[in-house]
Description:
Chain B is an alpha/beta fold. Helices cover 27% and strands 19% of the residues of chain B. In chain B, helix 3 packs parallel to helix 5 and helix 10 crosses helix 13. The relative contact order of chain B is 0.15. By secondary structure, chain C is mainly alpha-helical. Chains B and C meet through strand 15, strand 16, helix 9, helix 12 and helix 13 of B and strand 1 and helix 1 of C.
Amino acid sequence: xxxxxxxxxxxxxVAAVALGIAAKKFAVEVxxxxxxxxxxxxxxxxxxxxxxxxxxxxKGVVEGTIAANLCTPGGAESVEQIAHILGIEAVTADPKVxxxxxxxxNQKATAKYRYLGLDDCNAAQKIADGPKACPGGCLGLGSCxxxxxxxxxxxxxxxxxxxxxxxxxxxxKCVAACPRQVISMAPLDAMTHVLCNSHDKGAAVRKxxxxxCIACHICKKTAPEAYKVENFLAIVEYEHHLExxxxxxxxxxxxxxxxxxxxxxxxxxxxxxxxxxxxSAA
Amino acid sequence: xTTMKQKTFAGGLHPPDSxxxxxxxxxxxxxxxxxxxxxxxxxxxxxxxxCVAVGERVKKxxxxxxxxxxxxxxIHASTSGEVIxxxxxxxxxxxxxxxxxxxxDGADQWDETLKGNDPEQLDAATLKNLIRDAxxxxxxxxxxxxxxxxSPPQDKAIDTLILNGVECEPFLTADHRLMLEEAERxxxxxxxxxxxxxxxxxxxxxxxxxxxxxxxxxxxxAPHQIQVQSLKVQYPQGAEKQLIDACTGRQVPSGxxxxxxxxxxxxxxxxxxxxxxxRLGRPLVERIxxxxxxxxxxxxxxxxAIGTPLSHLVAQCGGLNGEPAKIIxxxxxxxxxxxxxxxxxxxxxxxxxxxxxEDLPQMKAGPCIRCGRCISVCPIHLQPxxxxxxxxxxxxxxAADYHALDCxxxxxxxxxxxxxxxxxxxxxxxxxxxxxxxxxx
Amino acid sequence: xxxQLYLSSSPHIHSGETTDKxxxxxxxxxxxxxxxxxxxxxxxxxxxxxICTLGCLAFEALSCKLLKQPLTLSDGSAALTGILLALNxxxxxxxxxxxLGAAIAILIGKQVYGGLGYNPFNPALVARVVxxxxxxxxxxxxTTPAPLGSGIDAVTAATPLGEMQTAVxxxxxxxxxxxSGYTDYLLGHMAGSVGEVSALALLLGGLFLLFKKIISWxxxxxxxxxxxxxxxxxxxxxxxxxxxxxxxxxxxxLLLGAFFMATDMVTSPVTCKGMLLFGxxxxxxxxxxxxxGGYPEGVSFxxxxxxxxxxxxxxxxxxxxxxxxxxxA
Lengths: 282, 441, 329
């Protein structure tokens, strides 16, 4: 019994001493500021800054090779903290959020064909440009959902991507993952959006979608400052997003929506608290 | 017939060949439809540029779109008639693409300026230009411009020409019928090809399930020093790399071309088209296509004018028996599904295959059980399930390390997978990712 | 109106071979051994078989429900695991132990890793080994076969391998039985677990699997071959102490292991070279454990140890691809 205790204890002691020596002897010099910066980053390794991970970004920021305000998930708070650590001036970017510019799920938009195969939007898009008849509509196979490092995207049972405004950090991973550019970045405080991505003429849109923009210009007439119509698609001018709300009830196809009143049908997300305040410290 | 040992390659499988529906049907000329839709993009490489306008009258064989660049060929009118539209029309690729729509005048009159030549009197460079001007592309389905394959760089010595008469895709019998009925044109084309490439060794590779074609061609080829090689019935015996391995024992280096091991491969149909192009001066305006599948009333091998809508071909075969659920241009292993029967048959249309709902396999994908069947059938000896797993995780570098780019997309792995995983589609997807990443760097 | 045509990536036909079909064929291949064991051991064997199989199905259904995953009973893998587990237990196993085994096999052996296809170890063997180590008394009380209707009572006895080990340990010599009695082993007249007793029935099932191309020859041949060669070498060195290779072959579930357990696709390598290596490793470990280890039987441990090496083997046995040379510049 005693021998066993001594043996195990002895091995432990020798190993501990060896490890201690090794740690001192082979220690890698790290700039303490780098560790401090890494500490204030969210640690999601999402790549929004353009570097593979948070450690790489921390190193770059400390070395001065990359700007200090590129961490969108960290928001204004982390920018200020980084600025404080490095003794530089904080230049925060306006917080952004990803918006799915489509409401045409499998119930509301028609399909060009029935797709069989890999559950991936990019793979489906390669077959006759995707199964949705609308060339800009959400394919609903969840490539953005899988790309999101923050679990902010869910697919409704009817095949539409919905992004939680609370969970989205604006890293733009989903924008890159979507083969049809359905997802666009918008200021976080803008609540009113035209949820359509089809540049087809109104007559064509009517054929394949019950809820698409038909370029009738009613929104533009209601709130001329807040809307522009380009290539048969109305777009909110986000500098005037407050005025945009006036046209919500006027849109004949109901493709203008206010997120403060809730998410599209089928989503499990609760309606966002208005206004979403992601950077309480800012 | 002597029982010679059948050559083959390592890997592959043998799906039911389903050729009995059309193998015994002689080639039949398909009457002209009401309108021909001739797209400007019918080959690998830059699409041709349309050079006719609405209202213009064209003769059969007249150029209606000119080649753009080296890897490109001109497109010709498939019959005489009036150009009634130049507009995007639904293309077999699945989207509307620029096309010339011709209303046939019924005379089917050739362009008088087209003149035949005696190939003996012409040099290799002239022959190659004539082949290009005639719009000859690989008729096996890949539609790679023939003149490009016939122009190896100076440092690549070519010693062997292989003619692909394998037709390993199930259901298709167009090449089989061509070999039985048009051996003379094929042999003439081979001799022209040998002259262009300055080689004297030509091998015709034919799968052993076409004993009549092997026997007949052996007899016909005997005086011409062209070897006819019987090959084991094994899919994808007709894939370029596998065919080269089976016929010569050589392997095309990874990432390379057949010319890197001294070989040029052409389809037998391409050889016949080259004979017409030189001797008769006739460009590629028609081809043989197999119209088959459980949904087609009477399977046939049709000689069709390029641009004939698929619906017209189906009507020639007695129509459909049942609601079509899947329309496939090409064979069932590598063919492309179509959005509608209104798309035209083009130069690469080796077959039209139509399935009903009940003929489709039930594919409810489950988890990979690591059975290793995909590995044992892969003719390139890849590990499809590993690459597909990397593809699901978008791990581009790892997939490239497992040689994803070498995949020939033959479909063996997906065909055999007991978990019915779309392996080839995953590999195709990650191949796109690898190439995109390489372009970025 | 939606277009009703299907579009997909090629190929558009399928072999028709599916996972549930594969599992079903393996279950068919186990039928001769299963039926024979019911004949030999009677009701106890039947109850072990039933409890394990139904238990595995129940635990699979339960875990699918808990994890909110679609029900996967129809793929047949749970039933197969249950049968394999039963065949690896003594016929006298109490009902609660069988049920515990089923729970370990499905929950710990498979579902915690993500279900079918993701488990690193053979679930049935995980359960057997856990039970063997935790309940050595129940797991090593063997009985001789008492064929149905023969009127013979089952009596407690050691397995041939157990008998051999005890004898060698006590006297340094092989017992009598180990030198004769091959016909008994071949047909199943020996004490042992439910499924290992009839070499002939197992061989029949294994050949069926080979014939149906469900398994390839690589693992069984290299596994059994290694055992025969290695066992043979030891036997030639000292025939008095080490049993002859045929004894190795016919006892202790080597055939069950080689044809049905080691060939489990999920936990064995995917390449031909890898499978050969895997089989050799299994054979080597089996012989070493049998002759020099603390347990009389080594097949289960050998396979589990080699399961752990599978990812490594796969990594180092990548096949050479077509045309794998530097492309000429």
